[in-house]
């Protein structure tokens, strides 16, 4: 990174994110891509518009951020590219080509793993003209906005995450009876409620919906009510960036300091095709 080129950018919203300007991912040199990586580490999310990328280009780009992560449900991955997950409502030859309505509800990806993914990248192949926006909440800003006494009360609490609970209770793509193999590969995990970012030590709330079964040493419903309270606080308009998709957009966010959610669209009129990639992360602390 010592030779990284400082890229031009403008904030996605005041104090959060970076829209990278004048960078063609396919043709950029190593120093420029290093500059993009540095911007990502500092700003929580990056956006690059007007890209024209093949799957191999996506793989080369994501590998500059770290090791690409596998996906839990391999049947939705792109043929020949198992690290690229397809989000779509298209059906080809009677078979869905990807997962539909995946990612609805405020969450952070892979929070049910001992080492959640560091980042998520979406590349827009086909987007509807209305709906399907992606919303990102800045959990560092939310943490900093809490009174000091509230921060002291929350810091040190531990959250119980469960993939099995998530799959049994989610609104879309529910799985009542997962295989023994999936259950074995996705045991329950415990993460801090307040997470430290390894790049610079900044703190963030580490909250989510779906995977959370409760807070350690708090009975339910109090534990779940605490999560609901914090998510409601962190997803106020002042902390949220709304991204309206265009074909060729690359949006990448840092799961260590953001929440995100997809939004619905009229899937009887429009089609959506997105390619999702993950970067391996480490144990939250």
Plain-language structure description:
The strands form five sheets. This protein has an eight-stranded mixed sheet, with helices on one face. A three-stranded antiparallel sheet has the order 15-9-17. The chain has 285 residues and is α+β, with helices and mostly antiparallel strands.
Average pLDDT taken over every residue: 95
H/E element order: EEHEHEEEEEEHHEHHEEEEHEEEE
* Tally of helical segments: 7
Low-confidence stretches: none
- Sheet/helix structural class: alpha+beta
Main sheet summary: 8 strands, mixed
Helix content: 10-25%
How does the SSE layout of this entry go?
Layout: E1 8-10, E2 18-21, H1 30-43, E3 45-48, H2 55-62, E4 77-78, E5 81-88, E6 91-92, E7 95-96, E8 119-126, E9 134-138, H3 139-145, H4 148-154, E10 158-161, H5 163-169, H6 180-185, E11 189-192, E12 194-196, E13 203-205, E14 212-215, H7 222-234, E15 240-243, E16 250-254, E17 258-262, E18 273-279
Parallel strand pairs: 2-3
Antiparallel strand pairs: 1-2, 3-16, 4-5, 5-18, 6-7, 8-16, 8-18, 9-15, 9-17, 10-11, 10-14, 12-13
Short description:
This protein has seven helices and 18 strands. By secondary structure, the protein is α+β, with helices and mostly antiparallel strands.
Q: What are its keywords?
A:
single chain, 285 residues, alpha+beta, eight-stranded mixed sheet, 7 helices
């Amino acid at each position: 990174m010592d030779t990284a080129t400082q890229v031009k950018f403008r904030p996605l919203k005041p104090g959060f994110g970076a829209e990278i300007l004048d960078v063609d991912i396919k043709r950029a040199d190593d120093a420029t891509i290093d500059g993009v990586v540095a911007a990502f580490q500092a700003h929580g999310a990056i956006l690059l518009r007007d890209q024209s990328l093949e799957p191999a280009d996506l793989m080369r780009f994501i590998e500059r951020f770290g090791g690409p992560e596998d996906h839990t449900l391999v049947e939705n991955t792109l043929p020949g590219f198992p690290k690229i997950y397809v989000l779509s409502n298209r059906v080809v030859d009677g078979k869905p080509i990807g997962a539909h309505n995946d990612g609805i509800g405020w969450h952070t990806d892979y929070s049910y793993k001992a080492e959640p993914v560091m980042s998520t990248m979406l590349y827009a192949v086909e987007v509807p003209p209305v709906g399907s926006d992606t919303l990102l909440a800045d959990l560092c800003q939310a943490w900093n906005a809490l009174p000091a006494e509230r921060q002291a009360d929350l810091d040190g609490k531990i959250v119980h995450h469960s993939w099995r609970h998530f799959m049994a209770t989610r609104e879309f793509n529910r799985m009542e009876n997962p295989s023994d193999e999936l259950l074995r590969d996705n045991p329950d995990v415990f993460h801090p409620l307040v997470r430290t970012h390894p790049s610079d030590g900044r703190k963030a709330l580490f909250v989510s919906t779906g995977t959370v079964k409760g807070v350690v040493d708090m009975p339910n419903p109090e534990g779940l009510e605490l999560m609901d309270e914090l998510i409601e606080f962190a997803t106020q308009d002042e902390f949220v960036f709304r991204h309206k998709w265009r074909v060729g957009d690359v949006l990448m966010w840092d799961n260590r300091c953001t929440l995100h959610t997809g939004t619905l669209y009229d899937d009887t009129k429009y089609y959506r095709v997105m390619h999702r990639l993950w970067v391996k992360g480490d144990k939250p602390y």
